[in-house]
Amino acid sequence: EDQVTQSPEALRLQEGESSSLNCSYTVSGLRGLFWYRQDPGKGPEFLFTLYSAGEEKEKERLKATLTKKESFLHITAPKPEDSATYLCAVQGFIKAAGNKLTFGGGTRVLVKP
Amino acid sequence: SAVISQKPSRDICQRGTSLTIQCQVDSQVTMMFWYRQQPGQSLTLIATANQGSEATYESGFVIDKFPISRPNLTFSTLTVSNMSPEDSSIYLCSVVGQGSYEQYFGPGTRLTVT
């Protein structure tokens, strides 16, 4: 069974204080690892898909990286508007699972001005 | 990415009643899913909504409690039946476009059962 663990559960940052979020996973053949941002009361917003170890993707102050066992979401010089819960999910290659995503518990990020 | 809408956006329901949630997409998609997000928790997949056939349910979820329909490639409904306070959650639909693995989520339906 696919498993995803995110750490830390919560992160308080000062504006401009860079940090990283961790997503550790076990999956029977990784088809893709996905990062989402979720604001309170809203549905998850798609950020990145990573497919293979060594891959990196960037969007504004966010950069996602992938190894064979974990992914990191780096937040560089965060601003208060980066405050949100960041969710990591994996999708395996098992045909019977289809496009099923298995989510981690999320990391709640609060950026203070 | 597809534009996804859900109705209602929120509702407060009495114990023992049922609520049907609608998910509408502005373009044809290959796959549609329904997730539950309990208060303070992450997302759990309820089922895959299959067009023209019965939904595929995850362990712990059954058709009698969560009947799902998907009559075409842009629309699906999830019914939460015989509700109890434990069903109070956010219910989210998601879609996968053609030729893609990426899932996009609707805004969610916040359900409170009293």
Structure characterization notes:
The complex is a heterodimer of chains A (about 110) and B (about 110). Chain A has about 110 residues and is mainly beta. Chain A has one domain: Immunoglobulin-like (Sandwich). Helix content of chain A is about 0%, strand content about 60%. Chain A has no helices and eleven strands. In chain A, strands 2, 4, 5, 9, 10 and 11 form a six-stranded mixed sheet that branches. Chain A is globular, with a radius of gyration of 14 Å. Chain A starts with a strand and ends with a strand. Chain B has about 110 residues and is mainly beta. Chain B has one domain (about 5-105): Immunoglobulins (Immunoglobulin-like, Sandwich). In chain B, about 0% of the residues lie in helices and about 50% in strands. Chain B contains no helices and eleven strands. In chain B, strands 2, 4, 5, 6, 9, 10 and 11 form a seven-stranded mixed sheet that branches. Classes of the chains: A mainly beta (about 110), B mainly beta (about 110). Chains A and B meet through β4, β5, β9 and β10 of A and β5, β9 and β10 of B.
Q: Briefly, what is this?
A:
With 113 residues, chain A is mostly beta strands. In chain A, 0% of the residues lie in helices and 58% in strands. Chain A has a single domain (3-106), classed as Immunoglobulin-like, CATH 2.60.40.
Topology at a glance:
The complex is a heterodimer of chains A (113) and B (114).
Chain A: E1 3-7, E2 10-14, E3 19-26, E4 30-38, E5 45-50, E6 56-59, E7 62-66, E8 70-75, E9 84-92, E10 102-103, E11 107-112
Parallel strand pairs in A: 2-11
Antiparallel strand pairs in A: 1-3, 3-8, 4-5, 4-9, 6-7, 7-8, 9-10, 9-11
Chain B: E1 4-7, E2 10-13, E3 19-25, E4 31-37, E5 43-49, E6 56-57, E7 68-72, E8 75-80, E9 89-96, E10 103-105, E11 109-113
Parallel strand pairs in B: 2-11
Antiparallel strand pairs in B: 1-3, 3-8, 4-5, 4-9, 5-6, 7-8, 9-10, 9-11
